[in-house]
Each structure stands twice: as structure tokens, then as C-alpha cells.
Design a protein that fits this description.
With about 250 residues, the chain is mainly alpha-helical. The protein contains nine helices and two strands, in the order H-H-H-H-H-H-H-H-E-H-E. The longest helix is centred in the middle third of the chain and has 39 residues.
Length: about 250
């Protein structure tokens, strides 16, 4: 449940960050933002097909580690993004992150239900989806709150150095950025807000990267799924049909 919680945090929280990042900071249209984020889903779909063939041949725990590694790498690359980042970088990194999620979903589901008896799989499915939804909700709430808080704190820290008494600022600032005029102060405030927001996004991406790295060692201590003999479904008796039940018997 810890893993699916983290997957919910990193997946939907990163999506919640990318949408305003592309539209607000980079000025992308809604359609453009959707196009550059589309390869993330393509990477997830392709790797889910690939990992389906690898399960049974490769230890499922190592597939989880690989998926977490891809996700952490994508988040690490995003910590260095600025509004000048190219569309190709956004597309390629999004594809890598989607590939990492593809390597997480299928093995995680396999491990989660490997030890559950058949009569408890319904409850397990509910708990599994609940953990993912809670992780998504908590993750989005945390990163959104951190964006606001870090933007304000970064704004205060940067603005402290923008004064007429800062010789370094006076030597590099143009006349239009002079804090002695109303237009200059407005331009300076807009520039500081932009830089503060960029730093806040970097901090959020770094947090998601650290969360992915933190759970990687836990994947190795999970119980390795064991193969069970194939189960045969027998024809239900009249009483079972009346009660809407289906019994499984071992061959």
C-alpha cells in the first residue's frame, strides 16, 4: 500500500504541477500543453505491454526498482527546468516518466494480489484503489500548498536584495528596473515573482524525486510472488447458482 500511495503522489501530483507550469510560466496554449504531455501516456501504455511479458521471467521487485528509477530520473531532470526549456525536453522526459509508471503499475498489482486468497480480492481491490486515490489527493494538496508557500518565501528572500543601496543591483539593472520609479518597481516585482515561482516548482520536483528514491530500498524487501498451481473453475451447483456464488477448486 505504501508503493501505490507513492505512485499516486508522484503521478497525479506531477501532472497537477505540469499543467500550470506549461500554461502559466511558459505561456503554452491548452492544446499545446496537452500535445507535449501526451507522450507520457504513450510511454505508460507501451511499457505496460513490455512489463507484462517480463513478469515471470524477471524478478518483479527489480521491475519496481527500475520503474522507480525512471520516475526519479525524470523528476531529477525537471528540477533544472526553466521557462526556456525546449519542447523536445518536455516530451522526452515525460515519456521517460510515463515509462517508469508503466513499470510500476503491473508489477505492483501482481505483488499486491499474489498472496491474497480469492475471496479477499474484492476487498483488496477496494483498498488498493483507495490507497492510490488518497495518495493522489494528498500529493496534489501538498505540492499545491508548497508552491504557494515557497513562492512567497522565495519572493521575500529575493526582494530583500533589490534595494537602491545594493551596488551590485545598481550596476546590472537597467533604467526600466529602477526601484525609484513606479514602472520600475512593477517590473521588478513581476520578475521576482517569476523567479520565485520557478524555484518553488524546482523544490516540488525535487521532493517527488526524493520520494521515489526513498521507497526504492523497500521494493527489495517485498515478498517475492510465488507461482500457484492453475485453478480450475467447476460448474456451480444448483444451490450456488441460486446464491450467486462460484466456487474454485484446486485441480
Amino acid at each position: 500500500m505504501v508503493f501505490i500511495f507513492v505512485v499516486g503522489v508522484t503521478y497525479l501530483a506531477s501532472l497537477a504541477l505540469m499543467t500550470p507550469y506549461l500554461q502559466t510560466l511558459m505561456g503554452y496554449l491548452v492544446i499545446t500543453a496537452g500535445i507535449v504531455m501526451g507522450p507520457r501516456g504513450i510511454g505508460t501504455i507501451l511499457c505496460m505491454f513490455i512489463v507484462g511479458r517480463l513478469i515471470g521471467k524477471v524478478d518483479t521487485r527489480w521491475l519496481l526498482v527500475f520503474g522507480l528509477g525512471l520516475t526519479a530520473f525524470a523528476m531529477y531532470d525537471m528540477t533544472g527546468w526553466t521557462p526556456d526549456v525546449s519542447q523536445w525536453t518536455i516530451v522526452s522526459v515525460g515519456f521517460i516518466q510515463g515509462a517508469g509508471l508503466g513499470f510500476l503499475f503491473v508489477p505492483l498489482t501482481t505483488i499486491a494480489f499474489a498472496t491474497l486468497p480469492a475471496h479477499m480480492r474484492g476487498d483488496g481491490t477496494g483498498l488498493y484503489n483507495l490507497s492510490r486515490n488518497i495518495g493522489s489527493s494528498v500529493g496534489i494538496s501538498i505540492v499545491a500548498a508548497l508552491i504557494v508557500e515557497n513562492t512567497q518565501s522565495n519572493h521575500a528572500s529575493i526582494a530583500a536584495y533589490v534595494t537602491p543601496f545594493n551596488r551590485a543591483f545598481d550596476a546590472t539593472a537597467a533604467q526600466s528596473l529602477s526601484p525609484l520609479t513606479a514602472a520600475g518597481r512593477a517590473s521588478i516585482n513581476e520578475l521576482i515573482t517569476l523567479q520565485s515561482t520557478i524555484i518553488a516548482y524546482m523544490d516540488d520536483f525535487k521532493l517527488l524525486m526524493l520520494m521515489s528514491l526513498a521507497v526504492m530500498p523497500l521494493a527489495l524487501i517485498l515478498r517475492k510472488p510465488r507461482r500457484r498451481p492453475h485453478q480450475r473453475i467447476t460448474a456451480p451447483s444448483w444451490s450456488d447458482q441460486r446464491n450467486g456464488l462460484l466456487r474454485y477448486r484446486e485441480p
